[in-house]
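A protein record pairs a chain with a discrete description of its three-dimensional fold. The following entry can be read in just this way.
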Amino acid sequence: MKINLVLILVTVTWLLPHQIVAIRRTNFDSHICDIKRKAVTKTRLAYYYGHMYTQYYTDYETVYNCCPGYKKLSSSQCVPECSPQCPSNAQCIRPNVCQCSSGYFSLFSHPTTIKCQPICPRGCPENSQCTAPGVCSCNQGYDVSEAEKCVPICESPCPENADCVKPNQCACSKGYAKVESVSHNGTFVCQATCSPECPANSLCSKPNECSCEEGYLMKNGICEPICETPCMENGYCRKPNQCECVEGYEIGKADEVLVCVAKCENECPENGFCAEPNKCECDQGYAMSSNGTCDPVCDPACPENGKCSGPNECTCLKGYRMVDDHCEPICENECPEYAHCSQPNKCECSNGYQLKLTSSYNLFCEPQCRGNCSTFGKCVQPNRCECLEGYEMDEVEQCKPICVGGCLNGLCYRPGVCICNPGYLMGPFNTCEPTCSLPCQNGTCVEPEICQCSEGYRLQAGSVHICEPLCEPACHNGLCVEPNICLCHDNYEPTEMRQGAYNHSYCQKSTTSTVAASIGTELVTTTETSNPSSTAITTTTLAISPQPQNITRVTPKPTFPPQSCLDQCLCWQEYDEFGSISTQPKCVHICLDSHDKPCRNVTQCHCDNEKLQLLCAMEIEDYSEDDPQIYICKIPKPQTTTSMPTTNASNEMKITADPNENSGNLLWLLLSSFMGVCCLAALVFVVYRKYCQYEDPLVEYEL
């Protein structure tokens, strides 16, 4: 047991010296970074059951470690370390940071750069320095004056007007300048200085103070000589009691008295004199001009186109004359009315007029008007326009032509002349009528390419120009040939309703050999017998009244439908930008002569069955330039006759132009002969017109 205890003690005693226990980090203000506990083995005498032995035990010591940059001053105090050491009047307050003592200051704090200088709160005077806090001492060579200033000390006295400015160094006082002087034993003297320098004939007696020499007097900063007798005008006292003329003047005599007169290098002009050196002035009543001459002065000024010929004397320029104190131009020839002579031999129209030249080279003044008055109007007064005959003024003050009755669907080109719009042609009553390329049958062309059927007609299905008649009630076994007029088919006749009354809308089988055609307003039935043995032929003749649409049915050929040739002959007068290019209206487009040119003298249109068009027939003997301006195409209206033979059961209807066959043949023979002569004459006339007649200078406008 004892042995074990001893072993334990020995073991503990061996281990404890090697143990260092960190206790804690301590106060930073003492700059001790850490504190450690160090185990130390110590011995002591101990008794155990009456036995004394050496006991080893462990004790702890506190170990202080300073922070970097600090050194241990004592076992428990660390102080900062500065290298090199801080100078006098400074302490090391942090590692390598010095601080001046109270009353001293430095711009730097490092031990190598710090310089602690004493502080004098009120500052030290010139030529002194602060030697201790609040204590100033004069520099060497200076001494304290009564005014407590450090003044330099000069062992030898300074000359007059000089001061001791540095130790043993003299300088001239302010306002004086140093001048070497031999008379003063090689030293200098101080003379007063004046700025600016003193004028001539004066001395600088004091700083910036000049005094004139004898015989001179200070005036305005200049020492002027004194002349007891005043000098003459433009002269000056050059020296005491001596006069001379100023520059630009010279000595002259006036009334045996010496005077100074001006000199001019160049001779003065006429009516002028030398008033100042090289300056000429004009005599009274004259003024110097820009070119250096003395011109007379007129007050008041001369009128326009006049000149001042002498003082207050005006004369007019050439070509002008004096009238009531103004110069008027002279025109040898009298100016026209509304004009005045504006310049010599030049007339100018009054305001609102302009100068014109007549065909005989005579001048006249014509009034001027705004707008387009000269085209179809006459300017009678300035800005007053009167339209020519046949023209009237519109709302924009322009003269427009007048067309009697207006110019509907057209443009009034000139008085009484209307140019129709496209799709319209001039009709026989000086109105623009619409045109349709396909003639309207049983209707009227009311607008370009638009047909309006007459009363009792309607447009045929699929057609825009053919109107077919309407029958109410509808025709039965017959054909509706006129409004509410039926024409029975072959072998049919109107139904007899009562004695003398027939129903034309309903046709029944014919029981007689007489056929009645109800196609007109006048029905004539006749019976003719060609020979005693032949059967009598009953003929019904209808006299057709003229219709408004002027459609003429003519004898057709089997292959020529009646509607192919219609009397659509229209009268037209042509124009270009210069006006009318024809003296006579023309029948154009449909009615053409043999040369396909518009007819000039249209008296009759006829239908050509071969060409299927209307042609213009010309009557040469009736042609005259004095014929009326408008021609109406006269188309004869043939009577229509219907006949039907009673023999051989042939009921074919025939349409002829005349009921009298013999007289008809004779008439056609005469007409054929007459037409042949007319065609020959027309051919001769056309050749004459084309090659012999004088051509109109205006180009004909072709439609």
